[in-house]
Structure formats: C-alpha cells, structure tokens
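Appendix B. Raw example, untouched.
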Amino acid sequence: MGLGLMGCSTNDIASRIVGSAMQTTEQRIGEEIGNRVSGALLKELTPALMRQYTVGLMQMLFYQGGYAMEFAEYNPGEYTAWYTEGSEYGQEVVKAFLQRDEEGREWWRIESRAGADENGEEVVLVIEALFEVGEDGNRYVRRVRAQYPGETEVQEVPVQEEDAELWVIPSQGQLTEESLEGFKAGQESIETPAGSFNTARYEMKEQGTDDTMIWWITDEGVPGGLVATEWREDAEDIQQRMVLTAYGADATESKLGAF
C-alpha cells in the first residue's frame, strides 16, 4: 500500500484524465513503487524510483489534471496545505516555495502525510528540491534532499547529470485565455477548512468518457489561486478530490538543511 491509503490508482487517474501527457515512464507510479512507498520500505527506494515518485507527487501539486490552473504566482515563503481523497501520494500534502536563489533557481518543499502504518505510526515524507526553470516553463530538478518515513536522518538523493534532463516537472496544458473562458462553468462560493472563497468554477470533460475535471479558482489572496479540485467519473461519482486546508507566507526556512 502506498502513502495514500484511499481511492483508485494513480495510473488510472493519469490515463483517464491527463491522457498521453502524463504517460511517460518518468511520470508513472507503478505497482512496484506503490508497494515500496510505505513506512520503512520507503528507505529502499532507488534513485530512479524516487525520481518517479517525486515527479508524480509534484505533478499533482503543480499541474492538477495535466493543466496549469494556478493563475497567481507563488512568492518566496508562500505555501498551501491540502487534504486529499483518492490519491496515492498522501492524505495531507503541503507545497511551499522556500526561496529563489541568485541564479533564479527555486527551492520548493513538498510534505506528504498518510494514516498510520502497520506499527500505528503516521507515515510522513518530506522532500526539498532545487528546480531550474527552463525557457519552456518546465522545472528541471537539480538537487533533492529527503527525510523518509520513520527516519530522523536527512538524506541527499543522487541526481546524476545524465538523469537531470529526465527528472522534469513539465509545464503542460497552458490554455489560452479564450479557451479558459470556454471551460468556465460560472461563479461559486465554497467553504474549505482554510476559509470561505468566491471562486470561478472550471469544468473539463474527457473526450469519449463521462470523466470530468473541476477546478475552483479564487483571486482572494491564496497563493496560486487554486482552492479545490475534483475528478468525477460522472456528475456525482467523485474519484479524487484535493481541498485547501491552510495557506500562508512564512515558509522561508529549510527543514532539511538544504540552504
């Protein structure tokens, strides 16, 4: 069982919602990874498996449903925290933009938490990654530090030069302003653990299926602007959900000694 303890498989979500854009080897979380990303077994991850897991987790946080729907930029120090259902990446996740260095590279922290493992302990993974943002908008991973579940020691995860071009968080699905307007389903006020927000609701149906991806976007000061997403197999059958639980602007320190 993976870090996330509920819902359908990540491969199923990727194939049915994102389509071919997420079907590369580097972005798929296979059964082998799902079996390893759990409690003490996580420390057995090879660099290749760690790369795949990290890309999948960050894909969910940066490009939900394969589209860049966070219209507002994160500033250094800003973070968002989320509750998820139907995700193999954790039931609680945090995304924090720690700093931008003098070369324009970005340090981000990702935290993932799931329910108790077989020993009754919460499963927690903390990753801090240095990204180089390319002219194409892709984030290329240059360095990774991690604290695995049940471990007190922080580990440096090897990023080989020949692998760096493959360990990428793609900036895909940049919709035009006119296309976004076409997917807008209206205005909606929603309640989240982080507060009440007036939002624009966007809906995108997967061609040839009843699957629908929904985003709720606000302009009321939330980093990125996103406050909730859902993937539905039909109008009522929610397969995956991510809801904002907290946000702030004081995430400026590394927890893993990255800088």
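End of appendix B.
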